[in-house]
Amino acid sequence: MIIIKKTQACRSCKYLTTEKKCPNCGSSNLSPSWKGVIVVLDIESQLAKTSNINKPGKYALYVG
Ligand SMILES: [Zn+2]
Q1: What is the pTM assigned to this prediction?
Q2: Separation of first and last alpha carbons in the chain
Q3: Per-residue pLDDT tens over the stretch 34-45
Q4: Cα dihedral value 27, 28, 33, 37, nearest 10
Q5: Cα of 13 to ligand 1 centre, how many Å?
Q6: How many A from CA of 15 to the centre of ligand 1?
Q7: How far apart are CA 20 and CA 26, in angstroms?
Q8: How far is the CA of 22 from the centre of ligand 1 (A)?
Q9: Which residues contact 48 (CB under 8 A, 6 or more apart)?
Q10: Helices (H), 1-64
Q11: Class of domain 8-63
Q12: For residue 64, which of 29, 40, 39 has the smallest C-alpha distance?
């Protein structure tokens, strides 16, 4: 697993980003405190459906 230090997790949708704003939902409510990574490649997968993810990308499992 690659951990990028500057990566922050969006508190609204848990999307992981190195930007100052979430590119997924546009929220600037980001947290540097998060655990675990979900990589979603297929939004039709069971994982994406149970996690309410509707866009491929990297998401945090837990956002502090
Ligand atoms: Zn977001």
Answers
A1: 0.82
A2: 20
A3: 999 999 999 999
A4: 40
A5: 4
A6: 5
A7: 10
A8: 5
A9: 40, 42, 54
A10: 46-50
A11: mainly beta
A12: 29
CB proximity list for 26: less than 8 A, separation 6 or greater: none
pLDDT at residue 29, rounded to an integer: 97
Phi, psi of 50 (to 5 degrees): -70, -25
Question: What spacing in Å lies between the alpha carbon of 38 and ligand 1's midpoint?
Answer: 14
**Whether the predicted pLDDT of 1 surpasses 80:** no
Residue reference for tokens 């540097």: 32
Token pair of 6 as six digits? 């500057």
Question: Is there a contact between 34 and 62 (Cβ–Cβ < 8 Å)?
Answer: yes
Q: Which structure tokens are listed for 34?
A: 């998060």
